[in-house]
Design a protein that fits this description.
three-stranded antiparallel β-sheet, 54% strand, elongated, mainly beta
Length: 83
């Protein structure tokens, strides 16, 4: 799943290992980040969607599945600082 940062950069999520990769348009990796919730692994949660804020300071990721440490909550939107 990918989302555009600007005309030359892209964010892609890797659902299998809960990572976000920041790429240049030519495919060069700029940075990679593993997502956690409250410092804990994401467990069975799956990444569904990704978007960057217009000012390029935040990234939002939609998640589905049981949220660790949140009782019966199924799914969430996670906001992380851009990188």
């Amino acid at each position: 799943m990918c989302g555009k940062v600007d005309a030359r950069q892209i964010l892609c999520s890797e659902p299998r290992d809960h990572t976000i990769v920041h790429l240049r348009q030519d495919g060069t990796v700029v940075a990679r980040r593993c997502l956690e919730i409250g410092g804990r692994p994401m467990g069975a949660l799956r990444l569904n969607g990704i978007a960057g804020s217009p000012d390029r300071t935040r990234i939002w990721v939609t998640l589905s599945g049981p949220v660790p440490g949140m009782g019966g909550l199924k799914g969430a939107v996670l906001e992380v600082p851009a990188f």
